Structure formats: C-alpha cells, structure tokens
Model the fold of this input.
Amino acid sequence: MSRPGSPAAGNVAAIMQTWNNSPLNNPLLSSLQRTASQQAFPETPEAKSKSKDLKLALKNKVTVFGALLIFAYQGAEVSISGRVIPFLINYRGGDPVRVGYVTAGFRGGIVVGRFVLTHFVTDLTVGTLCLQLLVWLVPNVIGDAVAVGLLGLLLGPVYPCA
Done:
C-alpha cells in the first residue's frame, strides 16, 4: 500500500507527468516518433540515397548470399547452445548440475576459435559436421560434452570471416 509522499507515489507522479507532457517537448519520444512514422516528415535526399543503396545491395548476389550465411550461422549457434542441454539431460541421462557446463564449453570454444582459427575457416566445415553427428549418434555424455566444446571451437571463426 503506498501512502502519499512515499517513493512509489513519487514514481507514479513522475511517470504521469512525463506522459502528460507534449511529445514534442520530449526529445527521445519525438525522435522515436520520427523514426517510426516517416509520413509526417517529407523524404529528404539523404533518405532517397539510403533507399537507393539498399536496393543496390539487395541486387548484389554476394551480399544476399552472405546475409543468408550469417542467418544460418546464427541459427545454428543459438540452437546448438540452447538445445544441447535438454538433449543431454533427456536422451543421454546427464546430471542437470554438470551438464550445464557444456554450454559454457561451447561458448568458450567459440571465443578461442575466433582468436586462433580464423585463417582456416574453409577447412573447418567438414569438422563441424562430423562433430555435430558425433554428438547426436554417440550415447556418451562426456564424449558429447567434449564434442560440443570442439564444435564451438570450429564454429567460432565462421562469423567474423563472414
């Protein structure tokens, strides 16, 4: 229960005062409005130039292929680090307390790989596929944990090279 003069009542009053002011008096809100609604402001030559640059970039096949590669890499990285823990617990009978370190090993492998293996990125794709298959096909928690850490090591340099 808040009493008049309490910090909670002061916070509510400050929030109401902020929202009751005109949006044009609030620089953050007005910049957000300008960003979200381009209808209220005429299109400038700079905006036309940016639109032209975007259309030119989307016509370039190398740019589109690179964007798709980064999209696939990000999806693989996030899904591996997010799904390996439930996989090891549910299908390999791993201890939840110990299996939690596997994601740390994966992320640590990514960090080390980005520093050490950047020059060999084209040779690493076969290794990543083999390690991923090893994780899914070998029913051993410790072997899977080591394979996931090495998988992170080999996946690490892919993103900076893209």
